[in-house]
Amino acid sequence: MSQKLTNFDMVIFGATGDLAMRKLLPCLYQAHAAGLLNAEGRILGVSRSNLDTEGFLKKVESDSKIHVKQNFSEALWDSFVKRIQYLKVDVTDKSDFDRLAERVKARQNTENVIIYLSTAPTFFAQACENLADVGLNGDNVRIVLEKPLGTDLKSSQEINTDVAQYFKESQVYRIDHYLGKESLQNLIPLRFGNVFFEPVWNKQFVKSVQITIAEQLGVEERGEFYDATGALRDMVQNHIIQMLCFTAMERPQSLAGDDVRDEKMKVLKALKPLTSADVDANVIRAQYTASDSQAGYLQEHNVPADSRTETYVAIKAEIDNERWAGVPFYLRTGKRMAGKTAEIVLNFRENPQGLFPNTPNRLVISLQPNETVSARVFMKEPGNGMNVVATEMSIDLAKAIEGRRAEAYELLLREVIDGRVNLFNRRDELEAAWEWVMPIMENWAQSSTPPHGYAASSWGPEAARELLAKDGNAWLEDQQ
Ligand code: BG6
């Protein structure tokens, strides 16, 4: 490989935790197996568990290896784990940080030290202070913050302020794994690298936009976390809003530095604030209810029987700018829905001339389960006359473009190693997203109206269908 790979020391806090075992280490393995990690790059797992490197590697062997999804071979795995060491570090114990600094500095890899905080955000402030005390916050250090970054605007601001006491914004990498999805990033070349999309990508041609993340799974074993969180915080404030920003933003001046983040920020600023009356009229919250053999949300483990936490939310949003004014953006996400999908749908306006009525075009950009871009195009039906029928022009990215498609976390980890900030949330973006969802949270906190219900494994509540119907629109599954 001719490309120079950046050397790195990656320190993972919370190394025995679920995210490290299920995602971070398997994804680092995948990068290693693909020859995309510098041969000298080292991973240092740290946590409170009283383990040594040998003990940690046993845990990695039993809990992490099974999560490798691509390119597994025992030989490559053996060479991968040679990169890994372990050190017991209690975030609250300053003397542990002296040992940590010694370990990191002993290697004299001045190029690039990455600190990945895969712990609860309540530990972030203390961890940053202790890192700074031992000099692990210099310009060669990057800090990665795992979500959830707060539970509302205030707590998110507090976390960011704490971290900012010790790290410059340019050193901070806030994870939203949706930004690591290839097909979300693909929106940039799709829109700005092909002449025929951008001219119609605006209010003159687009009637409405839909952004959906639907999951088939319920809350599984995460009842306690989920009940304190809900779909708005878990999915809308971050992933859905990121999809919205990529869909709606203007062309960035370049793909480097902060240019993309600047454009996303402009979208966030243009998002019309929701009044409490808007929330009543244009936001639907719902919980899944028992259906066939599937339990309802209120019967799930660790969920209180009187919980009002939403497992589904649908929102009609508007973007108050030149390009989008008046175009509804319908956003929705839910657990236990009829399918697993993440997609962006542009519904185009009716053809203004009368030759072919009822032929609205549609573009569907699917992030998962398959990465596809499909346009509904009307074509002549064979035979006499000029009847037209709807056909589909579709590109399956995995088939059309050769090459390994990395998992989102792998891609993001490589971006951190290389020091590219584009695919991470800047502080102002994150806080603007919280600011926008706050009126929804405040309205719900005061509302006496319970969430709607939707049958497990359905496409959501009737109320969400009505939300679109009153504008003469319909969700994708209800369209012809
Ligand atoms: C996470 C949420 O951020 O995203 C989970 O906390 C959710 O509740 C997950 O299941 C969905 O990610 P993906 O990549 O499977 O769509």
Q: How would you describe this protein?
A:
With 480 residues, the protein is of the alpha/beta class. The chain has 15 helices and 15 strands. Helix 9 crosses helix 10 and helix 10 runs parallel beside helix 14. Bound molecules: 6-O-phosphono-beta-D-glucopyranose. The site of 6-O-phosphono-beta-D-glucopyranose (BG6) has 3 residues, from loops. The site of 6-O-phosphono-beta-D-glucopyranose has 3 residues, from loops.
Topology:
Elements: E1 9-13, H1 18-33, E2 42-47, H2 53-63, H3 74-81, E3 84-88, H4 94-106, E4 113-117, H5 124-133, E5 141-145, H6 153-164, E6 172-174, H7 182-185, H8 187-192, E7 206-214, H9 223-248, H10 259-270, H11 276-282, E8 283-289, E9 312-317, E10 329-334, E11 341-348, E12 362-368, E13 372-380, E14 388-396, H12 397-400, H13 408-418, H14 427-446, E15 452-455, H15 462-469
Parallel strand pairs: 1-2, 1-4, 2-3, 4-5, 5-6, 7-10, 8-15
Antiparallel strand pairs: 7-11, 8-9, 9-10, 11-12, 12-13, 13-14
